[in-house]
Write a structure and sequence with these properties.
single chain, two-stranded antiparallel ribbon, binds flavin-adenine dinucleotide
């Protein structure tokens, strides 16, 4: 089966922009492939592990009432909910 047959949309890059776009599309019922060239998700809104110390790759703060919070609300993630799972 070709990619065109398997997916309605292919999003390149799992930064906050791509992740939000993919999440909104999936929430509307689209079959989405989110492709990331790096070994981890999140782009400049992630963390890198240095001997157990997690360092931000960029963004740390999410604007209250801003676009990220609005997307989270739209896809059913409660405000203030956090992911504490560490990268393998
Ligand atoms: C030091 C710093 C601090 C910041 N602090 C904040 C903050 O506190 N709050 C805030 O809201 N914003 C902050 N920002 C800004 C915020 O981090 C960025 O605006 C946001 O992360 C950009 O997201 P993006 O999805 O546009 O791009 P990126 O995060 O750059 O994501 C792009 C992704 O696409 C991938 N990619 C690229 N090409 C391909 C390809 N061909 N195929 C597959 N994958 C590909 C990359 O590997 C990457 O994962 C900060 C930025 C920096 C640098």
């Amino acid at each position: 089966m070709s990619l065109e047959q398997r997916y309605d949309a292919i999003v390149l890059g799992s930064g906050v922009g791509g992740s939000c776009a993919a999440a909104l599309l999936a929430n509307e019922g689209c079959k989405v492939l989110l492709a990331e060239k790096r070994a981890y998700l999140g782009g400049r809104f992630s963390t890198s592990d240095h001997d157990g110390y997690l360092c931000a790759t960029g963004g740390l703060a999410v604007q209250v009432g801003g676009p990220i919070e609005k997307v989270c609300a739209q896809i059913g993630i409660a405000s203030g909910q956090r992911c504490t799972q560490r990268r393998a």
